[in-house]
């Protein structure tokens, strides 16, 4: 007898945070998959959270910054490898405005967090396919405006 496990698609969120110099906040992944590559702050939405609440929590947990405003931009379907298993996800991208003194603290599953000028962003430096696709859409669609 074969056991079949059905999982509902999980929702993941990613933040696109620009500073006043039009630099994008990126993180270096501290864990697999794609350990050591660039990523955007974000993660899985917890039960009972909205997308905006989840992205604010993940940004705080990974960088120490507080999200003041999160505006939904777009979503992309994805297959994410979790504990060796392919999991279908819906990756939601938010343009976020943060508050605070701008000091970054790499925490949780982030090795380091820093800003990169928009003109120097190379999608191929990001380890996850969905992030590369999301960045290309964000940068080519003129979606990077100040909140």
Automatic annotation (TrEMBL):
Q: Please give the Gene Ontology molecular function terms for this protein.
A: hydrolase activity
Q: Which domain of life is it from?
A: Bacteria
Residues in Nudix hydrolase domain copies: 9-144
| Keywords noted in UniProt | Hydrolase
Which CDD domains does UniProt cross-reference here?
NUDIX_Hydrolase
Q: Which family does it belong to?
A: Belongs to the Nudix hydrolase family.
Q: What is this protein called?
A: Nudix hydrolase family protein
Q: Which organism is it from?
A: Bacteroides pyogenes DSM 20611 = JCM 6294
